[in-house]
């Protein structure tokens, strides 16, 4: 499995690397005025390179595709057809991606899950296809890529060189 294979899988479901990178850029731009969308795309690719992320994407996308073809057992099929708000398994699966980069990824995911910017909203609102899992997985990818950038931000304050309270 490669990052490019994962990009193809996402493209097949209507999501591009650029759309995810744009969300990452919007999350991190206030903290890094030199950040480019290209750097954000590189960060998304780095996240996509992790096998645990790939497995999570495969699982969620497969469940969405099975739901579209009405191949899930009841009551699961009805739950996904309705995109039942209390289901929560879609968010739980996406958290597997988010936790790769720590707490900042978690807070970013919460924001993205509530605000649903860009392609996340498009997936959530598209009733022609089932994206119960994919909208959250994309939010998880963007949150993890954003957290990865935050961890690498050399302009961030370095508190390790300071002694304790004076």
Automatic annotation (TrEMBL):
GO terms for biological process: lipid metabolic process. It comes from the Bacteria. InterPro entries: PgpA-like_sf, Put_PGPase, YutG/PgpA. One of its GO terms (molecular function) is phosphatidylglycerophosphatase activity. Residues 46-150 form the YutG/PgpA domain. SUPFAM superfamilies: YutG-like. This is Phosphatidylglycerophosphatase A.
């Amino acid at each position: 499995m490669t990052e490019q294979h994962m990009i193809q899988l996402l493209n097949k479901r209507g999501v591009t690397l650029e759309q995810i990178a744009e969300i990452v850029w919007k999350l991190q731009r206030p903290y890094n005025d030199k950040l480019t969308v290209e750097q954000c795309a590189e960060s998304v690719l780095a996240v996509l390179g992790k096998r645990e992320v790939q497995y999570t994407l495969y699982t969620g996308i497969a469940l969405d595709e099975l739901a579209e073809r009405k191949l899930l057992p009841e009551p699961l099929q009805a739950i996904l057809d309705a995109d039942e708000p209390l289901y929560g398994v879609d968010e739980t699966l996406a958290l597997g991606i988010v936790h790769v980069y720590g707490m900042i990824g978690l807070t970013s995911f919460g924001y993205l899950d509530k605000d649903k910017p860009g392609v996340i909203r498009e997936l959530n609102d598209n009733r022609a296809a089932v994206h119960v899992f994919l909208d959250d997985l994309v939010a998880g990818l963007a949150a993890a890529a954003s957290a990865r950038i935050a961890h690498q931000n050399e302009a961030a304050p370095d508190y390790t060189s300071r002694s304790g309270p004076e």
